[in-house]
Amino acid sequence: MPLSYKNIEPLIISENNSFSKWLGYFGLGIGVLLLLVSMQMFVNIQQLLQENNPRKSGEYDFISISKTITNANMGKDNTFTASDLTALKNQPTIQGVAPLISNKFRVRATAGDIIPFSTDLFLESIDNNFIDTVPPTFTWQPGQMVVPIIFSSDFLEMYNVFAPAQGLPQLSPKTISSVNIILECSGPYGTQNFKGNIVALSDRINSLLVPKSFMNWSNFRFMQDTSVHASRVYIKTKDANDPKLISYLEQQNYHLNKEKIKFSRIKSILQNIVSALGVFGILVIALALMLFSFYLQLMIAKSKDNLRLLLTLGYSPNWLAKSVAKTWLPVYLTIIVGALILTEILHLLFMQLSFVNAAHLSFVLNWSVWLTAIFLLSLTLFINLSLVKKELKTIL
Amino acid sequence: MMQIELRKVTPDYIEKENWEASQIWEKTVTIHKGEHLHIVAPSGSGKTSLIHFIYGLRKDYSGSVLYDNTDIKKLSTESFSVFRQNKISIIFQDLRLFEDQTVKENIEIKRILDPYHKPEAITEMAKRLGIEKKLNQLAKKCSYGEQQRIAIIRALMQPFDFLLLDEPYSHLDDENRKKAMELIYEECEKRNAAMIFADLKALDFLKNEKIIYL
């Protein structure tokens, strides 16, 4: 019979007073489950709300600000000056600033023969890297008769609401690109017609965007004026909910569309709740490990004489410590694998929820959850081993 | 291991006038592998202490005990465990058995540590010492004499160069004492091991022992 822990196990493990042991297992299971589930949910929320958030691009938020119009400043110049823009750029919470430049000449749009529709329009342009959808065709050079336009998807939705009442056809995002729009640009220095072509829809910017090159050229062509008077500015920030940023904007009397940052707020509230749950899980794990270590100390104290005799007979203290610590490997493994399975089940159930777009989520648990599970297993084993070693030392 | 040397060993608790006449305390004694040493001393003179000093269980002495040339006070418990697995074996005066284990389990716990004998040897030796019927009985249900025989068989299960015996026959009758002694001799001869035997008086049936008075 080879040297095995099984032979000496009855000398060490006593089954009396195992209540604290079972309570320890139970607590550990609950704590690990809480931690793993909250980590997975944190990642889920992060991924879902990021996908649903058109303002976001990578780690940045793009939000539009304008000067607050009050009775006192009504009628005055409420556009952003160059020094306003520089002050914004210098804010540590702001990573980029881009003014929306609008047309100074008159633009009239007709939709040709298919849709009997004509209206005065406004056009705007902004740095391309502030736009969420920029197709390669979104360029314009002098002499080009077709002007690419990026259309706000909100405007399309609005159009589709009033179109039937006006006897106009409703348009899908696909068909809108085939609508021929004639842009009639006029000013004191001339008149010219262009063909407008909607090349993309933007969820982020509520406007009709044209390439910057067209805006500069046409403002000069029809008005001989290329000065920038932006009444709307887009800022690029890492966190639209940063209290420093919000208080700065309020101080400057800048208006920020609160509705637009609702997603971020919901996300941060949900993530705070989930994080609190995770912290609670860590606390429960710590308590369970403490309880379990009391049980371990009690057990070693009870089998002190037997352990001492084993050491006297020539059993190696290291081998004993490792063997005793290893006894709980299957238990810990079961607890952690069980928690992983339950987390996976809860994750799959979460994906079934009606408001969750499952296409954005992976069926497999996030790597951080796996890593945490492995870390917890190593941690419990390490704590066990060092505790047993310490207790054995007191016996020697 | 070739030798154990006791270099000026004196227990901390013994007064000078008590060790002056001793052939061991404060003297240098070397026991070589294969030798038989019989330490004779009345009770209370430190026999068990000496055996415990040699086995490394106690360190309350001055001088040094050397395994070959290593001072055992410097050995870690981990390296001591290796010596106890295959270099040095012991029969304690107070036996030190696992009371809630069977006789067989008590012996097996020692055998599996570094098996010198096959498992069948347990039954054979138990038969020779007349306790084969007790093998499946709990150790605490055995008489003191039977427990002494269990402790003897347990000590013989491992490889060793030195065997320490601390009054191993105190509760055995002459016949059983002789049987046990023969078994121990045989086992020591097989291993060419040294025997350090401590008892109250010189036993009549010992062979060629060097007798030392403590």
Mean pLDDT of chain A comes to 84
User: In the CATH classification, which architecture of chain B applies?
Assistant: 3-Layer(aba) Sandwich
Radius of gyration of chain A: 33 Å
Largest interface: A-B, 20 and 21 residues
Strand content of chain B: 15-25%
Q: Which structural class matches the secondary elements of chain B?
A: alpha/beta
Number of strands of chain A: 12
Helix content of chain B: 25-40%
Features:
heterodimer; A: 396 residues; alpha+beta; 2 domains; six-stranded antiparallel β-sheet; six-stranded mixed β-sheet; 12 strands; 49% helix; 17% strand; B: 214 residues; alpha/beta; Rossmann fold; five-stranded parallel β-sheet; four-stranded antiparallel β-sheet; 7 helices; 9 strands; 33% helix
Commentary on this structure:
- Chain A is an alpha+beta fold.
- Chain A folds into two domains: 5-53 and 265-395, no CATH class; 57-239, no CATH class.
- In chain A, 49% of the residues lie in helices and 17% in strands.
- Chain A has eleven helices and twelve strands.
- In chain A, strand 4 (106-110) and strand 5 (118-121) form a beta hairpin.
- In chain A, helix 2 (19-51) runs antiparallel to helix 7 and helix 7 (262-302) packs parallel to helix 11.
- With 214 residues, chain B is of the alpha/beta class.
- Chain B has one domain (3-213): Rossmann fold, CATH 3.40.50.300.
- Chain B contains seven helices and nine strands, in the order E-H-E-E-H-E-E-H-E-H-H-H-E-H-E-E.
- Chain B has helices at 16-19, 47-55, 77-86, 103-111, 120-128, 144-155, 174-191; strands at 3-11, 28-32, 36-40, 61-67, 70-71, 88-91, 162-166, 194-199, 210-213.
- In chain B, strands 6-7-8-3-9 form a five-stranded parallel sheet.
- In chain B, helix 7 links the parallel strand 7 (162-166) and strand 8 (194-199).
- In chain B, helix 4 (103-111) packs parallel to helix 6 (144-155).
- The longest helix of chain B is centred in the C-terminal third of the chain and has 18 residues, at 174-191.
- The chains are: A alpha+beta (396), B alpha/beta (214).
- Chain A binds chain B through residues 1-4, 7-8, 10-11, 306, 309-318, 396, and chain B through 57, 77-78, 81-85, 96, 98, 100-101, 105, 108-110, 112-114, 119, 158.
